[in-house]
User: Fold this.
Amino acid sequence: MVIKIQTKHFLKVLLVLTWILFVGLCVEAGGILFNLLYTLYRNPNEATYFWDNVNLSSLLAYDKGFFIVLTVLMTIVATLKAIMFYFILHLFYNKKFHIEQPFNLALKNFISYMAYFALAIGLFSYWGTRYNDYFLQNGVTMPELQHLKFAGADVWIFMGIVLLVISQIVKRGVELQAENDLTI
Assistant:
């Protein structure tokens, strides 16, 4: 017995997963930002149980400014991920993308946006990683990179570069398709 999954069903599953990831990333970005503000203005002891039970109390004790910069970097990375998934959702609901003509400006723009967001996530994650290494060298107890959501900066940068290459290929495909439409 062969089970065939149609493209429509697969896209609906992907849409549901994208919504789940988008909402989760929005909650994460908002939670980090809320915990930052709550820790700074209400209760500095909350740094012990920061977002996702990350202990940043030694960083806050070391320097309040460094604490702000690190948590803002965490917020930026989470927000960029959420925006990236927003654009994926936008592609699902955007009626400009047609499978009949796959090489179109909407696809080229979408891939370009994904490339730029992936590069930005990679660069901010790399910045956070270097920042975290600086604190470790100065004897500040820091959580692991995956708990700070900075792990994988190199993967994000690699994905951004690959998407930029694909974007240029699609751009060339759009140009060829436009030339082909003019000759007919």
The chain has one domain: 7-183. The first helix runs from residue 7 to 41.
